[in-house]
User: Which sequence fits this backbone?
């Protein structure tokens, strides 16, 4: 059995030993080969002699041969890395989920990138993120259904003006025939129009109005239909995009220089414009207004005075107002609606206004699992450690328990609780998630606790989670002890591969020990 492990250890040792100088040597040889190849190509079209070409061919072949051992080593190293990546795919997804816990920090970073200054300590809640930055944050923080993810991807392509890819994403949403199908058909037609495929855009709009006669997108669809017909036979005008950018700059400036005059202009853009960028930006600018007129306009949008996408935006932006009135309005919208997407927007509004009490109520009492998860993620972003832990202890659904574990802050003080819960948990899937969370705490006792669990663990997936937790905690010593005692060939191979990527003395010593046996 050990002989079958030797190649893994050997390649791992090569990977650990590969210094920058070796990498530079490989690159230098590659450049030589490329230079020779270029010279040959030049020679084939010149007046060089056959002897010169033959010498060049010989030099090139010699260099290629000299590279073969290096290429083989690199290929083996790459193969091992790919295998390791597959083995830890679930862990990588878990790590991505952990990013949600840093939502406040990410929001501040996104605001800086967007040019918006962070709010002063005593000021009201910060203004909402611009549409593009907000979409990025939402994509990081949220999971959602496959329909929702595809729809968000399509909207992102619109923002990037990648019309072809937008059409493809929205077509996939249309084919799913879910709750986003009518909106997807509208945006598909919009992208087709921007591509100059106006006949296709009109067909898409006609199908949308026929299939969804009660859709809240009908007014937008009719307005777009008029625009497409008016521009029929005309080439796509690049200056129209520049005009959009100028209008966006103009509305940004007006809200600060003359907000009372700006509000009616913004309302007109939101209701009349067919540009998604301009309309979303107008809602964003409107949300920054602290005037009574501006708040009233935003409230009207939040209560349904526009298409669903803009309503969801307005609802989220209301949360940044941070007043008792806006919180109460959000609660009324949540209580009176059956639209899951709208309710999720309200929950994000609660998060923006730091309304922990209402988020906690939704997390405990909401009957829809998707909405409970959204509320739990919001609590995680607010570092509601005690509340989440109490929910975990009282919860009976394994699915919700796992979501709570994802949301729990990775604090060292949670280690004892998690360790005790993992030891007592009978559900293997939950036990695996508990083990992963233990590794994320990076408490001093993690290594000893996880190593102690490994020997008596019957589930191979939980064992892999223990290995991953020890790797995440940087505990090569415990992994070496486990590897020495492991008799299962597949698990031993996984342990050796894990150790090969840990640049620690204990890991290197163990790999060299295996090679010297």
Assistant:
């Amino acid at each position: 059995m050990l002989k079958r492990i030797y190649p893994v250890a050997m390649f791992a040792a090569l990977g650990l030993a590969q210094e920058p100088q070796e990498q530079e040597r490989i690159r230098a040889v590659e450049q030589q080969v490329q230079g020779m190849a270029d010279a040959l190509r030049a020679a084939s079209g010149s007046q060089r002699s056959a002897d010169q070409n033959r010498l060049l061919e010989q030099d090139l072949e010699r260099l290629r041969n000299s590279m073969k051992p290096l290429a083989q080593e690199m290929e083996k190293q790459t193969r091992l890395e790919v295998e390791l990546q597959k083995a830890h795919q679930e862990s990588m997804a878990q790590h991505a989920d952990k990013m949600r816990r840093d939502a406040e920090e990410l929001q501040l970073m996104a605001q800086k990138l967007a040019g918006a200054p962070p709010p002063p300590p005593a000021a009201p809640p910060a203004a909402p993120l611009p549409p593009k930055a907000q979409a990025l944050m939402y994509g990081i923080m949220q999971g959602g259904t496959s329909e929702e993810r595809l729809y968000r991807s399509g909207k992102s392509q619109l923002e990037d003006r990648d019309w072809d890819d937008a059409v493809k994403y929205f077509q996939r949403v249309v084919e799913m025939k879910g709750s986003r199908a009518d909106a997807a058909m509208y945006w598909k037609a919009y992208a087709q129009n921007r591509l100059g495929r106006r006949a296709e855009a009109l067909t898409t709009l006609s199908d949308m109005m026929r299939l969804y006669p009660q859709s809240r997108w009908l007014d937008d669809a009719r307005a777009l239909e008029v625009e497409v017909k008016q521009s029929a036979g005309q080439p796509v005008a690049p200056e129209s995009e520049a005009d959009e950018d100028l209008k966006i700059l103009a509305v940004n400036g007006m809200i600060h220089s003359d907000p009372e005059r700006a509000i009616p202009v913004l309302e007109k853009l939101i209701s009349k414009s067919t540009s998604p960028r301009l309309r979303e930006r107008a809602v964003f600018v409107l949300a920054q207004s602290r005037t009574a007129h501006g708040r009233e306009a935003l409230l009207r949008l939040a209560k349904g005075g526009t298409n669903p996408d803009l309503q969801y935006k307005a609802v989220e932006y209301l949360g940044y107002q941070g007043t008792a009135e806006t919180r109460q309005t959000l609660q009324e919208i949540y209580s009176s609606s059956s639209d899951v997407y709208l309710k999720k927007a309200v929950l994000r509004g609660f998060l923006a206004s730091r309304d922990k009490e209402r988020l906690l109520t939704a997390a405990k009492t909401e009957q829809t699992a998707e909405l409970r998860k959204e509320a739990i993620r919001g609590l995680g972003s607010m570092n509601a450690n005690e509340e989440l832990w109490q929910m975990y202890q009282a919860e009976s659904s394994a699915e919700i328990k796992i979501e709570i574990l994802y949301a729990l802050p990775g604090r060292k003080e949670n280690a004892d609780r998690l360790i005790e819960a993992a030891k007592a948990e009978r559900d293997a899937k939950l036990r695996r998630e508990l083990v992963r969370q233990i590794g994320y705490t990076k408490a001093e006792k993690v290594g000893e606790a996880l190593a102690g669990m490994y020997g008596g663990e019957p589930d191979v997936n939980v064992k892999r989670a223990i290995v991953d937790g020890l790797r995440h905690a940087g505990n090569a010593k415990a992994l070496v002890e486990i590897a020495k005692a492991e008799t299962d060939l597949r698990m031993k191979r996984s342990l050796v591969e894990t150790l090969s990527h840990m640049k620690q003395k204990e890991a290197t010593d163990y790999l060299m020990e295996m090679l010297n046996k």
